[in-house]
Write a structure and sequence with these properties.
By secondary structure, the protein is α/β, with parallel strands linked by helices. Helices cover about 45% and strands about 15% of the residues. It has an eight-stranded parallel β-barrel, surrounded by eight helices. Helix 2 links the parallel strand 2 and strand 3. The chain is globular.
């Protein structure tokens, strides 16, 4: 796999910047999706999170509809829906509705994590004792609801039945790699916050992959943070918003995305800096030349089919520009 062969996409969490309203945030997500469409990005995914004042993508299916309505060709989907938070039938109906409205453009990425804290997970009605059994069963239920054969079933997903909605398995550890390989489904790994097991997860997935009718070959998506700017120094400055977000995560100090700062050492302790840098160890930050070099190193180490970039910066225009530079870096444009 060379960089020129690599598909490139975006995971957006609808980050709420300090001083922005929710409406501004969601409008910015739509503006970003339109921008990415003009740059020929493959897909635009949104992630389900709850009880987080910095993220506005909790009603993921609703937001996917908003983005799909405002764009024309880019694929739009979930990265992901946290399936044990929901009934399989409801998700099949929601995504069946989306696919009916925007045919050929909807992806359903599913994960098993809660996307939130323990108290909120309880409020969502999750039962942690049965998650590992429930998650594979729910994927099977989704596939049944989407199948033509289910037209004789007692419970049917209308809309949803008979629609071609690809299902992707999301993971941040090796557990979902085994599941995705067993089911013959594409696999997306959350390297943007949990890089430690990514290499092993990809190895497990490829070596144990069982071909399915729709996906005869394994397909790997790696999500990672990418922040690109005109210079390495500017990119590092922009990245301090991301660093602050992870410091706040470590401290359980919930707040909107913060403006960049000149010196992170005034904010984090040495121990916090070490923790954050470990979680963000796969982040690609720098100028176009630096990003190109780091991407070449990345695809040499990790056998991926698609890069899913996450860009958590404070300024919306800087985020738009970052994705322009990323595309040029992938294509090695001068």
């Amino acid at each position: 796999m060379t960089l020129q062969d690599l598909k490139y996409s975006v995971l957006d969490l609808a980050y709420i910047a300090q001083g922005n309203t929710i409406k501004q945030t969601l409008n910015n997500s739509l503006d970003l999706a339109r921008h990415l469409e003009s740059l020929d990005y493959t897909r635009f995914w949104l992630a389900e999170h709850h009880n987080m004042v910095s993220i506005a993508s909790s009603a993921t299916s609703v937001l996917i509809g908003y983005i799909a309505e405002g764009t024309e060709k880019i694929r739009v989907g979930s990265g992901g829906v946290m399936l044990p938070n929901h009934s399989s039938l409801i998700i099949a109906e929601q995504f069946g509705t989306l696919e009916s409205l925007y045919p050929g453009r909807i992806d359903l990425g599913v994960g098993r994590a809660p996307g939130t804290d323990g108290y909120t997970a309880m409020a969502l009605g999750r039962n942690p004792q049965i998650i590992n059994e429930q998650f594979p069963r729910q994927i099977s239920e989704l596939q049944t609801y989407f199948s033509e054969e289910n037209k004789t079933g007692q419970v049917r997903a209308i809309p949803g039945e008979g629609l071609d909605i690809p299902v992707y398995i999301l993971g941040s550890s090796t557990d979902s790699a085994w599941l995705a390989s067993e089911l013959g489904l594409p696999y997306a790994f959350a390297g943007h916050f949990a890089p430690d097991q990514m290499s092993m997860a990809f190895k497990i997935y490829r070596e144990n992959y069982k071909p399915s009718e729709r996906f005869p070959e394994p397909y790997i998506i790696a999500a990672t943070n990418v922040i690109a700017a005109d210079t390495d120094e500017e990119a590092e400055y922009l990245a301090t918003t991301l660093y602050q977000a992870f410091v706040n995560l470590v401290r359980n100090d919930r707040k909107p995305a913060q403006p960049p700062v000149e010196d992170m050492d005034t904010i984090w302790s040495p121990m916090e800096a070490m923790q954050v840098r470990r979680m963000l160890s796969l982040s690609i930050i720098g100028s176009k030349a630096t990003v190109h070099r780091k991407l070449e190193d990345f695809v040499e180490v990790y056998p991926i089919d698609e890069l899913m970039a996450v860009c958590n910066v404070y300024d919306h225009k800087a985020r738009l520009k970052s994705y322009e530079i990323l595309k040029d870096a992938i294509l090695n444009k001068q």
